[in-house]
Fold:
Amino acid sequence: MNEINVVTGIGLYIITGGVFALVANLLRQPLILAYLAAGVMLGANLGLGLLECQHTIETIADIGLILLLFVIGLEIDLKKLLASGRIIIAAGISQFLLCVALALGFALLAGFTLGGGRFDALYLAVSLSLSSTMIVVKLLYDKFEMTTLPGQITLGILVFQDIWAIVFLALVPNLSNPALGVLAWSLTEGVLLVAVSLAASRFILPWVFASAANKPELVLVLAIAWCFLVSGVAEVLGLSMEMGALIAGVSLSTFPYNVDVIAKVTSVRDFFVILFFVGLGMLIPMPDAQLLLTALAASAGLVFIRFVTIFPVLFGMTRSLHTSLIPCVNLSQISEFSLVILALGLGLGHVDQRLLSLVIIVFALTSVLSTYAIQYSHQVQGVLARALRALGLRDLHDEQAPPKDVAQKDIVFLGFSSVTSSLLEELVRAAPAAGIPSVLDRVLVMDANIRVHGLLKKHGVACVYGDITNMDTLSHANFSQAKTLIGTTPDTLLHGTTNLRLLRSLKRLYPRAQVMLAAVTIPGALKLYDKGADYVFLPRLHSARQAALAVLAGLNGDMAAQGADEARELRERHEVLP
Structure:
């Protein structure tokens, strides 16, 4: 053991974690994996044995853990959760309970204990039932899928998982005395702490924070003070400080200062979190063949359990393979929160070091695999959907083939977004002046978001379910009588295809139709023109009103002429950032 002072130890943690994090960032892997790897290298079990996990550093790391859970609580918006809709509520409740039940069966079959003061099987089951908010949110944000229906369902389930984790943390301190009355009282204390914290956030804290709003640094201090106050009360009640931190965050989640507090606390939290995960990595022992095989089996079981617990619920409520499969792919990893729970269980003597090592290996495996699975989630979903259709499962796409009268619409919108909504409104406003009093009767929308369908029908717009990125869907739709096909989604928001590929498909399927597509850059727009697009909508230059006039011109077959004029103007532009 190397006797070094605390400052030197922290320095080694940070330097090593920073180097590994830089490599992980270049490889597009989660930074938590880098911190764990840094701990492995520093530790004596698998690494160089440069230092031991010192008690003082562990104490500092515990502060980071409390701040981590505080930030997680801040990001749980109870108002949005209650208004999230029956699909998310049903999936959020059933997913965790079913996952725990199936994972508990797996853990018991794998030989993990439950009883006699040990709760390895239960901790493993709970750990396998939680998915990584950090990984999923980052990847969905990068893919611009946070606001899609599958993305919203994914985020809703993640929020419910955090709520379930709070419930479990409330029970953890009394698992060694599992009498029903003791557990019920522990849960009651947790509910009371939540109620009191929410009451304080409703009647007292708004006044406190409002009085300090002109001093941003004071807002931060008050927020952290509230975090440690609730954490301390939780510890006095016999609950965990970590649970108190979560509750403190939840109670502040609807405050107008929430975003600013998260931004400031996150930078402080990250410093301490590095120490926590590096220290955790130092505890990993040399894995043997049995441990690795168990980790592989647990990883495969986790993916299987996600599909069998999430897909049936979503498909039963949406009848959409796309909407039901994407969240399963997104959530097929273990959470960093699971490592926190296992670390707490280890400290309480509920589990042994071997289980913690197993969960860390599963975390590493599923994090790496899900990084790529989420990146290519639509391709993965396509393969799974074809397999399910081959087994006879009917998709909403199969049941909602466009009726004959729908297929005769003159204007077809491929996908519907806020941009499309503005374009449609401008089209309705400009149509009477062009001698078209009922333009909505000539419009059809194809979109895979079933929530949009209800809104469109309320406005008298015909709509049909379909994935516009799928060639078979476009062919099956039979838009042979359409005069104009319009796609307003730029490449940055399309998944599994590009506007250039979409253009080629549409020209091949419907050579007589005029095609309007969207672009982000001038070179991108010119490339679409060169490949046969009749009009390219460039939001940075064109308004929805201009695009609507082009659509109306298309009803008379004049869209290409307007597009040619636009292309000439684009070629004459010499912008710094084209």
Q: What stands out?
A: The longest strand covers residues 443-447. The longest helix spans residues 289-318. Confidence is low (pLDDT under 50) at residues 399-406. The chain is about 65% helix and 5% strand.
